[in-house]
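Protocol step 4 of 6: structure prediction from sequence.
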Amino acid sequence: MPARFRVLQVFQITGRGRAVTGDVLEGVIRVGMVARPEGSDQQGHWLIGGVEFADNPSSRESHIGLVLPDAPPVEDLRTLLPSGTVLVIEAALQA
């Protein structure tokens, strides 16, 4: 069963690549899995290169960060993944 993740923010991490923060809606997310926008097989599939805890004490919020090193440039990714977009996360296909 795939995991589901709601995107809150898209940004660039120097030396790591593109990343999204958000919340896991269901399931388990691991490095090496593949993320894609829910309901669309055409907008891209991106390998998850990192799963991290993203804590913001000033706003008393905690979220999960996913590093997507092979995703398109951050400006394009923001267009593809506006806040509220749900990602479907599945195991990568083995060749």
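Step 5 (inspection) to follow. Residues 74-80 form the longest helix (7 residues).
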